[in-house]
């Protein structure tokens, strides 16, 4: 089976130049599929094409405008952030992987993966990161940890180069990740299970993020995710049946 190279997603880029620098980094490291969420206008005579180098010939003109929802639904997503919450009790920006660890974890995994970058000034917000499968952060000086978009993209794509530049040296695929649609169904089933079990609302979103991060790191196979779907479907059905029986038992005597 042929391994799929990651796509690159830029969310709400503030200037056309930022898009151009990302496109150039993609060209350097063998990536071709650029997705743009709410992009600025990309004038062929403007700075995007000026900054793109040879990527102006293919990567940039073939860039596709998409919605954030479409990215989440279709791909195994890796959100890139400079700000991390290094606390196991929080799961929006933690746990995170460095680019090197991300590259290592993706080796041997056949999955449509999207590297998602945010705005130049403030990156991806917590709501967006909460919907993504994994988090990646680049270690940098505490005095100035924030890299610009082009720098971050270049570093991450460099670390992934073994999977994108020289296909003759690729390892055999060891794991085939389940379809993203099935993985999203699994997350929906987990949410239904929490609701049916009477799980506390105040903990619900945090728990769902924890599960998403766990599954994002695990790269479940098709068989694994379908087995889990069956388990949660059955458990949720039993909980709902028992709740219905209790509700019927608690009703006043109608006779």
Helix content: 40-55%
What about the largest sheet? 6 strands, parallel
**What fold name goes in the CATH topology slot of the largest domain?**
Alpha/beta knot
The number of helical elements comes to 9
Given the helix and strand composition, which structural class is it?
A: alpha/beta
Terminus-to-terminus distance: 66 Å
Q: Strands across the major sheet, in which order?
A: 3-2-1-6-4-7
* Order of helical and strand elements: EHEHEHEHEEHEHEHHH
Q: What's the CATH H-level superfamily name of the largest domain?
A: SPOUT methyltransferase, trefoil knot domain
Describe the structure.
The chain has 255 residues and is of the alpha/beta class. 44% of the residues lie in helices and 11% in strands. It has helices spanning 16-28, 47-51, 68-74, 99-106, 126-130, 149-159, 180-196, 201-218, 222-250, and strands at residues 7-11, 34-37, 64-66, 76-80, 109-110, 113-117, 134-136, 175-176. Helix 7 runs parallel beside helix 9 (222-250). The protein has two domains: 7-175, Alpha/beta knot, CATH 3.40.1280.10; 180-250. The chain contains nine helices and eight strands. A six-stranded parallel β-sheet has the order 3-2-1-6-4-7, sandwiched between helices. A two-stranded parallel sheet has the order 5-8.
């Amino acid at each position: 089976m042929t391994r799929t190279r990651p796509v690159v997603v830029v969310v709400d880029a503030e200037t056309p130049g930022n898009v151009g620098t990302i496109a150039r980094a993609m060209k350097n490291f063998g990536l071709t599929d650029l997705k743009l969420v709410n992009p600025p206008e990309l004038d062929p005579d403007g700075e995007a094409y000026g900054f793109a180098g040879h990527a102006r010939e293919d990567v940039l003109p073939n860039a596709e405008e998409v919605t954030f929802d479409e990215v989440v639904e279709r791909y195994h997503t890796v959100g890139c952030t400079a700000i991390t919450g290094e606390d196991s009790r929080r799961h929006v920006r933690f746990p995170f992987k460095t680019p090197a660890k991300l590259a290592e974890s993706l080796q041997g995994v056949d999955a449509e993966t999207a590297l998602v970058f945010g705005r130049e000034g403030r990156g991806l917000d917590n709501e967006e990161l909460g919907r993504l499968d994994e988090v990646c952060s680049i270690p940098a000086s505490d005095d100035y940890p924030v890299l610009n978009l082009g720098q971050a993209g270049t570093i991450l794509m460099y670390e992934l180069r073994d999977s994108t530049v020289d296909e003759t040296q690729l390892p055999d695929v060891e794991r085939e990740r389940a379809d993203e649609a099935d993985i999203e169904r699994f997350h929906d089933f987990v949410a239904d299970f929490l609701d049916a079990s009477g799980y506390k609302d105040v903990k619900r979103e945090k728990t769902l993020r924890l599960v998403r991060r766990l599954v994002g790191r695990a790269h479940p196979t098709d068989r694994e995710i379908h087995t889990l779907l069956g388990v949660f479907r059955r458990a949720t059905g039993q909980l709902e049946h028992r709740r219905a029986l209790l509700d019927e038992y608690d009703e006043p005597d109608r006779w």
